[in-house]
């Protein structure tokens, strides 16, 4: 799903990419790269609030399941959304 989602992103078909990344999260909510790509797609579409919602969901899942914070890469996307 990740590879096909990136293909759609590269073609500018962000809605299709978002759909795939959401399916990926439904299949395994522990795969952080799906959250990252989803955040980036929403950011590209100007949906900052939705991207932030995805980040918060990712952070909650990782914290409750593993007791860890999102990766530096995910945090970097988050910081770009909030202007840090």
Looking at the structure, the CATH topology is Serine Threonine Protein Phosphatase 5, Tetratricopeptide repeat
Apparent shape? globular
- List the helices and strands in order: HHHHH
Number of domains: 1
Our count of helices gives: 5
What is the CATH C-level name?
Mainly Alpha
CATH architecture: Alpha Horseshoe
Runs in which pLDDT lies below 50 for 5 or more consecutive residues are none
**Approximate strand percentage:** under 5%
CATH superfamily: Tetratricopeptide repeat domain
- How many whole angstroms does the radius of gyration measure? 12 Å
The end-to-end distance, rounded to whole angstroms, is 30 Å
- Class computed from helices, strands and strand pairing: mainly alpha
Fraction of helical residues: over 70%
Number of strands: 0
Describe what is shown at a glance.
By secondary structure, the protein is an all-alpha fold. It has five helices and no strands.
